[in-house]
Amino acid sequence: MKALALVGARNAPESGTVFFAALCVVTRFTVAALLLGLFSVRSLAGLTRNEVKQGAGLGLFGGVGLVLQMDGMSYTHATTAAFLTQGYCIWIPLWFALRHGRMPSLTVWGSSLLVLIGAALLAGVDWHHFALGRGEWENLAGSVLFAGQILWLERKDFAGNEVRRFTLVMFVVMVLTSLPLALATAAKPSDLFMAYASASALGLLALLVVVCTLISFLLANRWQPEVPATEASLLYCTEPVFTSLVTLFLPQIISRFSGIDYPNERLTWNLLAGGGVILAANVWLQLRTAAEK
Predict the structure, then answer these.
(1) pTM metric for this prediction
(2) Signed CA dihedral, 157, 162, 164, 165: sign only
(3) Which of 20, 91, 180, 187 could join 5 via S-S bond, C-beta 3.0 to 4.6 A?
(4) By CB neighbour count within 10 A (0-12 exposed, 13-18 middle, 19+ buried), where does 159 fall?
(5) Count of structural domains, the chain
(6) What 3-state DSSP class applies to 117?
(7) What is the pLDDT of residues 97-141, one digit of tens each?
(8) At what angle do helices 88-100 and 134-153 cross, to 10 degrees?
(9) Range of 93's domain?
(10) CA separation, residue 186 to residues 17, 30, 189 (Å)
């Protein structure tokens, strides 16, 4: 996504970062919806009201959450945003505590705290200059919506819904929530088409749509309900660990393909310590869960 934004900025230099972030979401989920609809056309006639309800909820939580996260990135450091986004590993245990009137286990709280510490180490948060301004509040609000997305997916009344059909609805709703932002922030209407009008942009989009959207969302929507929401939220927090590892070598490969200047990141103490703490938290939770079974 970052490489795609760099390519877009080269093709449409007058538009800003918020525009490219919104356009990426619109393009990514539009193409994904078209492909998923094409491969699911025979089953679409069986689309139920309950599947529309599930997909619409997922799309609203995810779409509005992404818009808040993208706008918040314009008003705070990316590292701070990355840290605050992991807040859903705290919101979900709090939700269950309030809803059921009993506190989550020490293992859940301990794992959640370790994940937050690991995310802060990964992000390199500067606590001396940390303050809650517009960007920070928007990222916190986004993390609440991402928590809502996780909780919405596991609702028992959605059991039995066909994953391809409600995922298609989700993609369409995410497009509808991001399209107004892309239209409002474009420097000129032609940027909506010129930003990705190159072979390198189309190649990156193909990778993003197939691997990072169709495959990943279908897998998540199918299998996340099989585990408790608290456990799912902690597992999702391993994402920045794998992202940090991939950025050690992938940016230069993308740069050679796309003709952009996107250097590899370096192996740092923050990566080793933060990633290690997040993985340790998940191992602790999994071992404890297995022991209880």
Answers:
(1) 0.83
(2) negative
(3) 20
(4) exposed
(5) 1
(6) helix
(7) 777 777 777 888 888 888 888 877 876 766 666 666 777 788 888
(8) 60
(9) 2-292
(10) 10, 18, 6
